Amino acid sequence: EDPSLERHFKGHRDVVTSVDFSRAKKRLASGSMDSCLMIWSMKPQMRAYRFLGHKDAILCVQFSPSGHLVASGSRDKTVRLWIPSVKGESTVFKAHTGTVRSVHFSSDGQSLVTASDDKTIKVWTVHRQKFLFSLSQHINWVRCARFSPDGRLIVSSSDDKTVKLWDKTSRECIHSFCEHGGFVNHVDFHPSGNCIAAGGTDSTVKLWDVRMNRLLQHYQGNSVVNSLSFHPSGNYLVTASSDSTLKILDLLEGRLLYTLHGHQGPATCVAFSRDGDLFASGGSDEQVMVWKTNFDADYGDVVKPQKYSSSVDGTHGTGSEMDCGIHHKKTKTQDSGRTHEQQEEETTLANTLEHIMGQLDVLTQTVSILEQRLTLTEDKLKECLETQQKIIQNKTN
After folding, report:
1. For residue 18, which of 241, 272, 291, 351 sits 20 to 30 Å off, Cα-Cα?
2. CA distance linking residue 65 with residue 23, whole number of Å
């Protein structure tokens, strides 16, 4: 079965720049040049919420791993952290001096990495909402920054035509990939954490092994790649291009699997849901589309790494090995050591813990919103007292 359009959402009044699913696929967040963050319900007939706060175009949005917070970055140079509820309250992070193009939570939800036109990448703590450190070796706008699945590495892509790999602990750049022929719009880690994919204005998608720092696969398209997303199985990659298409690449076979036409005008953003059953795309046609994946029925089968003849370095048929941890679902027999009850208990415990973490996210965010209000009230009080003193002084004079 081919991928099929499931739903589409209309509500933005300008180019849609970013899309992301919440963990349970109940909601979809989108950002737009219209300065609005929209949260769409995946249940039919459920209303969408429009959140206002940014003073200029929103260029990136992402749900926290628990799904209880949404981060957004904007041309107004700020990052906002929202509680995606009816009130839609948010707190503001200010440290960048240019447009913020990318926001990304670490997989434990504790850190946030942001990338900006001020040529820096910044890392923040989510709970204390504190700026931690900057990474600054790019010599042009930084378009995208992502944590590795284990949170130890950060990858960034820039208009200086490089992709850089950083060690989060030592805060050093450990490698620069300079093989792109244009601005690098988007980069992300493979779910295994062993390789990265990047796409940009030279119309290519390149995959590198981050352990050996070598090129694994190279796909030559015919239009600017604006965004890309790995399927959670690690076996597929979807891209959004300026020729208005979404393309699905089969990484095992090293070939283009599908080209999807839906948007009128450039497709600007694309993202798989956390379980890979759906993917969403946004475009300059102001639309958000949700697609049913359908092609992943067999990715649970055990697939051995094979040789590929996708062109690498422009020479066809050299064959690059895609051994960056193509990930397989466990077959039932592997699990039979544990009883069904044990598995259920573990799942319940994990869910409870996750719920507690989510509640903590909200509490932390609520406390900081209250702190902000308190500061505002204190400032107002100070102003009133100063004005009163001035009045008294004027009278006595």
Report:
1. 351
2. 7
